[in-house]
Amino acid sequence: MASVLSFFATTTVLALFIFGCCSTANAQLSPTFYSKTCPNLLTVVRTAMNQAVTKERRMGASILRLFFHDCFVNGCDASILLDDTASFTGEKNAFPNRNSTRGFEVIDTIKTRVEAACNATVSCADILALAARDGVVLLGGTSWTVPLGRRDARTASQSDANNQLPPPTADLAALISTFSAKGLSAQDMTALSGAHTIGQAQCSSFANRIYNEANIDPSFATTRKASCPATSNTNLAPFDTTPNSFDNDYYKALVGRRGLLHSDQQLFNNGTQDALVRTYSTNVAAFNRDFAAAMVKMSQISPLTGTKGEIRSNCRLVN
Ligand code: HEM
Q1: Nearest residue CA, atom 1 of ligand 1?
Q2: What is the predicted pLDDT for the residue at 107?
Q3: What is the mean pLDDT of residues 40-57?
Q4: Residue 266's pLDDT is what?
Q5: Where is the active site (predicted)?
Q6: Which CATH code for domain 41-164?
Q7: Mind telling me the catalytic residues?
Q8: Ligand 1 binding pocket includes 68 (Cβ within 6 Å)
Q9: Whole-structure pTM value
Q10: Of all protein residues, whose CA lies closest to atom 40 belonging to ligand 1?
Q11: Which of 56, 95, 175, 287 has the largest count of CB atoms under 10 Å?
């Protein structure tokens, strides 16, 4: 009897191990994925990001945005890094990306160094996930442990990039549903929007707000109009007063009705996220905690694992 019981116990444990461990996308990735095959990976990425951010502080923001635009379009699979060719249309020229996403050369540099250290081992998708985390840390933000083991897509979709990334004209309900479609809660959405504590936006992304909206601090609108005509142009403006510091100033701006994008101010406009925005505006520890947790969640959207996809040799091209 004892041996029968022990057989069932062992079988159950084995079954849990085999099926339980990998039933969610999350469980497929692991922070130690390259610990034997590329032990210096984290140092190589951090060193290169340090150089890039020292050269231009905004690069930390640009790489973070690249990662978001990768993950929201069919998962974190480096699809955004693929160049268009005569026979291939990728995501770089989709509306949210065209003349706007930047930092591709930095990822190229990191990939070259990673290939030199560990040939044909590390995916571009994992490099982007690590680089995004490092950009945040280098600008004074919180850190998190990056799950690894993503593989690179052999396809990309311009139409999915157009349809799945939220536009700056989105209202609160649309923002919540866009994130919900990716398995992220309204709280995740509000915390992740705190990424706008770093970086800049072009006048074309916020001209309508500063000229036509009522829920805006009038002196903030006047200041922004000085370099952004109603007809709009490509001039840049920071999202908050400290665009090179990853802090909670973005939420203070929202509470003061100084959100730059229409979509930013939607988080504080007498709606369901007002209380959380107020909390983040006064409690940087709460923002850091929720941002880090939401980044880990976002970083695990539909990864390609196992034998799916490939390890690209050049992040811009399928092998
Ligand atoms: C909530 C919905 C979001 C909308 C509607 C949105 C929209 C935008 C827009 C329109 C810009 C400026 C683009 C330009 O004018 O060229 C921008 C910049 C940026 N976004 Fe978002 N975004 C959202 C969420 C996020 C998330 C979740 C992240 C990252 C976790 C993120 C990170 C950034 C960063 C860092 C920049 C500045 C990039 C730079 O300076 O190069 N955004 N976003």
Answers
A1: 193
A2: 98
A3: 98
A4: 98
A5: 69
A6: 1.10.520.10
A7: 69
A8: yes
A9: 0.93
A10: 199
A11: 287
